Amino acid sequence: MKQYVLALDEGTTSARAILFDREGKIVSLSQHEFPQYYPQSGWVEQDPMELYASQYAAMTECVAKSGVSPKAIAAVGITNQRETTIVWDRATGRPVYPAIVWQCRRTADECTALEREGKSAYITEKTGLRPDAYFSATKLRWILDHVSGARERAARGELLFGTVDTWLLWKLTEGRVHATDRTNASRTMLFDIGACAWDEDLLSLFDIPRAMLPEVYPSGHIFGTVTIMGAEIPIAGIAGDQQAALFGQGCLSFGDMKCTYGTGCFLLAHTGETRVVSRSGLLTTLAAAPEGAPTAYALEGSVFVGGAVVQWLRDEMGFFDESRDSEYFASKVADSAGVYVVPSFTGLGAPYWDGKATGAIVGLTRGVTRHHVIRAALEAIAYETEDVIAAMANDMGRRPNLLRVDGGASANGLLMQFQSDISNLRVLLPRTREATALGAALLAGLAVGFYRDTDDIAGVLKRDRVFSPEMKREERERRLFDWHRAVAATRAFTES
Question: Looking at residues 443-469, what average pLDDT do you find?
């Protein structure tokens, strides 16, 4: 019987289920969206029951419409939005509060206080992270502090904590398994990435009871089983979305780098068994690895606004009706006519980490058209990405010559060519654009012997297109110089 691997991909706005064959080709795909809620300015929440319901619906629909017998599914892998924090009742399975989403900024002042108190160095040393509301620890403490009786119940072991993967695993296994993988644990700001264990001092710092934390395993591991249409199938792989994409892109050695172009842009560079400490404002995190493999690390840099600038041009400025049309209109002009868009709508991410920065358009003249602005906005995504690539190269001591890409905006040929030009490296677009889901599927497949080893999965990782740099060095340097001037001007305006 031909066998398959199923990936469950719980993102920030939708749940997807993708069935892959052994060659990594998509057999079936289903997607169900779910809402986000904004109860106050800067707050972002989701309903955990809606997260689960949407993922379960996508899973069953994907299998049903594929025509594949559930008994032919060798394993299930889970990948997920990271850092989002959920607390639920162990006995009833009901959440005690809405999920606090990774984007939520309600604990930003608390993180600033940690920095003032001199706690940053210890947190970074243990976790590879910097104190920020982005991560789970302060979100979890907030729930314990603001839900009546929650802290006492958590200490008694009555409440459970998990990121989205843990919540899905617990629900899919009908409450039998409370666990996570190392990549998701490494994003909580509670996990020692050297010892690969929850850190008692950090638990004390944030006043988090150990009893509510999940067990932690390698990303490739048989966590439990899920019943799909009467078939018991092992859940054998879990990884946070960006680490899953790194694995799904075949980035398994020191210096291998990928960028996922989504609402933001997320760059990860594999650093092997070496834990590289960034001098450039980047984060150190754990990379996904099969069970039995050495602990692997990665450098990570996040661009807050990537594809979101295209959505802004579409929805707020009305420059086009469909996001994919941005490439068409941008190609109507040869360049941006000296216009630079700095899309720091929610601050600047790595390597600047300037949460107060606002957006700007500089270089406007009377001859500038909407086509120039559209092109400048697409180029901004590449400039922001190059800033992170340069920071990673500085930290690793060498610059890559290849960038693997995935995500929605990777389909924009103009953007990918400009990325190749401005970064002076080849850009590889894989055959399978669903790198995140594929990574989870490959990890699960390895855990159950569907694939023999990492060499066996190499044949799955086939390229679709390669972009090579065409821009002259002088032009590249001039454009980067002007981009950095535009960023500096934007930050100076905010400071004033």
Answer: 87
Count of alpha carbons within 13 angstroms of residue 213, beta-carbon side: 25
Beta bridge partners of 76: 6, 235
Site of tokens 């080893």: 453
Element (H, E) at 388: helix 370-396
**Exposed/middle/buried for 411, CB within 10 Å: 0-12, 13-18, 19+?**
middle
Domain ranges within the chain, ordered by starting residue: 4-240
Please name which of 251, 218, 245 lies closest in space to residue 458, comparing C-alpha atoms: 251
The encoded tokens of residue 371 equal 């086509």
| Three-state SS at 476 | helix
pLDDT band at 13 (very low <50, low <70, confident <90, very high): confident
User: Looking at domain 4-240, what is its CATH homologous superfamily?
Assistant: ATPase, nucleotide binding domain (3.30.420.40)
3-state DSSP assignment of residue 284 = strand
Closest CA to 425 of 434, 417, 433: 417
Identify the CA nearest to 231 among candidates 72, 55, 77, 70: 70
Tell me how far apart the alpha carbons of residues 184 and 164 are, in angstroms, rounded to a whole number: 9
Q: What is the dihedral of CA 404, 410, 414, 418, to 10 degrees?
A: -40
Q: Express each pLDDT in 279-303 by its tens digit.
A: 888 999 999 999 889 999 999 998 8
**Lowest-confidence range among 287-301, 315-329, 375-389?**
315-329
Of 212, 213, 95, 216, nearest to 147 (Cα)?
A: 95
CA 187/CA 271 separation, integer angstroms: 17
pTM metric for this prediction: 0.88
> Which of 71, 59, 70, 69 has the alpha carbon at shortest distance from 30?
59
Q: What is residue 496's predicted lDDT score, i.e. its pLDDT?
A: 56
Spacing of C-alpha 365 from chain mean position = 37
**Rounded to whole angstroms, how far apart are CA atoms 38 and 54?**
20
Least confident of 84-93, 145-154, 320-329, 482-491: 320-329
Longest dimension (CA), the chain: 68
Residues in Cβ contact with 181 at an 8 Å cutoff, skipping those fewer than 6 apart: 165, 216, 217, 218, 219, 221, 238, 239, 240, 288
Could you tell me where the DSSP H helices lie in 424-472?
Answer: 435-447
Q: Which of 29, 8, 457, 64 is nearest to 223 (CA)?
A: 8
**Each residue's pLDDT tens digit, 29-84:** 999 988 889 998 888 899 999 999 999 999 999 999 999 999 999 999 999 999 99
Q: Please give the pLDDT value at position 486.
A: 94
Closest CA to 50 of 25, 77, 84: 84
> How distant is the alpha carbon of residue 359 from its chain centre?
23
CB contact set of 201 (below 8 Å; sequence gap of 6+): 122, 126
